[in-house]
Write a structure and sequence with these properties.
Blueprint (H helix, E strand, L loop, with lengths): L17 E2 L2 E4 L2 E4 L4 E9 L6 E8 L3 H15 L11 H16 L2 H12 L3 H28 L4 E3 L2 E9 L2 E5 L7 H12 L3 E5 L9 H10 L5 E3 L4 H10 L5 E5 L2 H10 L7 E5 L4 E5 L5 H13 L9 E7 L3 H13 L21 H14 L3 E2 L7 E2 L2 E2 L2 E4 L6 H4 L6 E7 L3 H9 L2 E2 L1 E5 L3 H12 L4 E4 L15 E2 L2 E2 L4 H7 L1 E9 L2 H10 L1
Parallel strand pairs: 1-5, 8-9, 8-11, 9-10, 11-12, 13-14, 13-21, 14-19, 18-19, 21-22
Antiparallel strand pairs: 2-3, 4-5, 6-7, 7-25, 12-24, 15-18, 16-17, 20-23
Helix pairs in contact: 1-7, 2-4, 2-6, 3-4, 4-5, 5-15, 7-8, 9-10
Bound molecules: glyceraldehyde-3-phosphate (G3H).
Length: about 525
């Protein structure tokens, strides 16, 4: 894939690297003078392929991490801080100010999303707009929550005023595939509930936070949001070891989540809000509409090159239809369009992780060595920043691609005769996020849907897996998630029910009347 400067629309050219030396601690934007890390895009700007230097970010360590943590701890101030005690309407006003400044940064953020993670122009715009909608919806849901908690209830002679209170200090870490959306889907509900936060952007998708630092500073009291840059190990580890974090909010990998949790000395203090990896299967029954199943499996397995936790990562096809499915599916994969994110109608785009093509190649080699075939002629074709999706069949349980979350362009297919086979595999799996079920016989589907709902958290009927719409619960079993996210659920995940109880006495009545 050749990219020369004049094939890049002028609007999207990187004219000079962005030196991002700002960071935000305790309400102050500070200028970093320590070591920095280069941020490269795997997309080339020159005729001869070379990664493009996009900019530099601070490479901070323990000292700054702990300063950011101290600022968040002081802003919470044992529950007495300005933020956790602020009136709901005032907190909402801060979030509204933030989102109105954020809206003005759309073009900058979208451009960086394309360069940093290779997301197509359309999907980058969608990520930005979806995040804005999520923030507005969160504000509305929070207003409802607050209205509902204005009531008193009385049981057995005891009045109760039940509300939801903040948990404390949140360490917020987002993923590279949705560096804006998924991070803000953690951060915004966390702070709107009165928590304070330390936020470290993902390794890829880091520069795009730069245009928003000022908005955070302008919108919130000091110390409510603190933004630091650096490697997870150098920043998050030391923060967890202090035992001062009340919530670990992380979208990423279960290994990193486990490593961070175990560093926290007080495990019962630490609440977890985790969106982790998955190996969502598609199950194609013999009576499925094959054309529909194929087009949904293509988008499910290959949207954003399969770099989605919700991506279809293994496909089970009934033996009666597997040959037809495979033939059409392989042809459909090879007809996709690869290009740079700004190219029109592009389906496949460069992989942001330089090591990803080699990793996917390892999975292919291992599968082929153990008996799988590459069904599509272009499968495994390399370019400098891509590897063409290989459709592998027949895959078995001894192959790495069967059990590892590939998070990239390779599609393992298995066939089955008895539906119990995929069900057993799902029960055995470490993951339990979603499944896609393709079929049309209601008598076969009904009991299957009930069983599948007990193995995963969302059964998608004749459609690919996905997180949205964001009002629906997004969660998983086993190593796929802890807690539930959605506009509605996230407010609950980042808070705890607290209440004032008062016996029905004259003295209490008098106090409560005065209080109200
Ligand atoms: O990486 C996991 C994302 O939550 C997937 O979201 O289904 O909207 O692409 P999506």
């Amino acid at each position: 894939m050749e990219t020369t400067l004049n094939t890049i629309p002028e609007l999207f050219r990187i004219n000079e690297p962005l030196i991002q030396d700002d960071y935000l601690i305790n309400g102050q934007i500070l200028s970093w003078e320590g070591p920095t890390a280069d941020v490269f895009s795997t997309i080339s700007s020159t005729e001869e392929y070379a990664p493009t230097l996009l900019g530099k970010v601070p490479n901070m360590a323990e000292e700054e991490a702990l300063r950011a943590l101290d600022a968040a701890v002081s802003a919470y101030d044992k529950g007495q801080g300005v933020w956790p005690t602020m009136r709901v309407s005032d907190r909402i006003e801060c979030i509204e100010r933030f989102v109105s400044i954020m809206e003005t940064k759309r073009d900058e953020v979208v451009k960086l999303l394309m360069w940093e993670i290779g997301k197509s122009l359309n999907d980058s715009k969608k990520e930005f707009d979806r995040t804005i909608d999520y923030i507005h919806d969160t504000i509305e849901d929070y207003k409802n929550l607050d209205r509902d908690s204005a009531k008193f209830e009385k049981n057995d002679g005891v009045y109760a005023h039940i509300r939801r209170g903040p948990l404390g200090v949140v360490l917020c870490l987002g993923p590279y595939n949705y560096p804006l959306n998924e991070t803000f889907c953690l951060l915004i509900p966390a702070i709107i509930m009165g928590n304070t936060a330390v936020f470290k952007p993902a390794k890829h998708g880091v520069l795009l936070i730069a245009p928003l630092i000022e908005a955070f500073k302008e919108s919130f009291p000091k110390g409510v949001v603190n933004i630091v840059f650096g490697r997870g190990r150098a920043i998050a580890g030391p923060i967890m070891k202090t035992g001062k974090v009340d919530v670990l909010a992380l979208i990423g990998n279960s290994l990193s989540a486990n490593a961070l949790q175990t560093q926290h000395p007080k495990s019962n203090r630490l609440r977890l809000v985790l969106g982790l990896e998955a190996k969502n299967p598609a199950i194609v029954l013999p009576d499925a509409d094959l054309d529909l199943a194929i087009s949904e499996c293509i988008s499910g397995a290959l949207s954003f090159n399969g770099q989605r936790c919700t991506a279809l990562k293994v496909i089970y096809v009934h033996a009666d239809v597997v040959d037809t499915f495979n033939k059409k599916f392989a042809a459909a994969v090879d007809s996709l369009k690869f290009g740079n994110p700004w190219d029109p109608e592009v389906n496949l785009t460069p992989l942001p992780e330089p090591g990803k093509p080699a990793y996917i190649q390892e999975l292919i080699d291992d599968a082929v060595e153990k008996g799988a075939k590459i069904l599509n002629p272009r499968g495994g074709e390399h370019s400098e920043n891509y590897i063409w999706p290989a459709v592998l069949y027949p895959v078995n349980k001894n192959m790495r691609v069967y059990s590892e979350e590939q998070f990239g362009p390779v599609i393992p297919i298995l066939s089955f005769n008895d539906i119990q086979e995929p069900l057993d595999d799902m029960a055995e799996s470490n993951y339990g996020q979603q499944v896609s079920l393709f079929g049309s016989d209601v008598f076969a589907l009904a009991p299957l849907i009930d069983t599948l709902a007990n193995l995963v958290c969302r059964v998608n009927l004749n459609s690919s897996c996905q997180r949205g719409p964001d009002v629906y619960p997004f969660t998983g079993r086993k190593d796929s998630a802890v807690a539930t996210l959605s506009v509605h659920d996230a407010l609950r995940s980042f808070s705890i029910r607290t209440f004032v109880a008062s016996k029905d006495t004259e003295l209490n009545k008098e106090i409560l009347e005065k209080l109200l």
